[in-house]
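Sequence, please.
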């Protein structure tokens, strides 16, 4: 049996495909991705890069801004997550991670911005290993 790293070290939003954004009644929101790349650490500065289907569950959503049109299947050109001190958060796990801002810019020019309390990975499913990456993530 081949050992697969369990927790992603980095989420790469570039070329991610958003399937849906669902607002919940309890001030939460779920972003479902048909395609989202994750870097899993194998050794120091060595990673497996996987395409996954995944959802990000966002809690304590204070604001949700959508500037532009949100069409299904449009790729993300850039995405980021920040904590309250404006430090970049590289990844999420199945446990709640404190966040203050999540932003996604789509290839169409549409911007999605959330101010929130926390987020976690939900329904992560590995689909295909793309490559092995050697080097720093940033």
């Amino acid at each position: 049996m081949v050992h697969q790293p369990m927790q992603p070290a980095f989420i790469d939003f570039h070329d991610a495909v958003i399937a849906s954004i669902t607002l919940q009644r309890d001030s939460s929101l779920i972003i479902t991705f048909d395609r989202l790349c994750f870097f899993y650490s194998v050794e120091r500065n060595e990673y497996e890069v996987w395409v996954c289907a995944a959802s990000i569950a966002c809690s304590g959503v204070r604001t949700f801004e959508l500037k532009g049109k949100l069409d299904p299947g449009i790729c993300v050109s850039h995405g980021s997550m920040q904590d309250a001190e404006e430090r970049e958060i590289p990844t999420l796990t199945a446990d709640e991670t404190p966040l203050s801002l999540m932003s996604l810019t789509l290839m169409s020019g549409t911007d999605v911005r959330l101010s929130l309390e926390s987020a976690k990975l939900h329904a992560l499913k590995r689909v295909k290993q793309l490559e092995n990456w050697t080097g720093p993530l940033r």
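Residues 47 and 133 are 5 Å apart (CA to CA).
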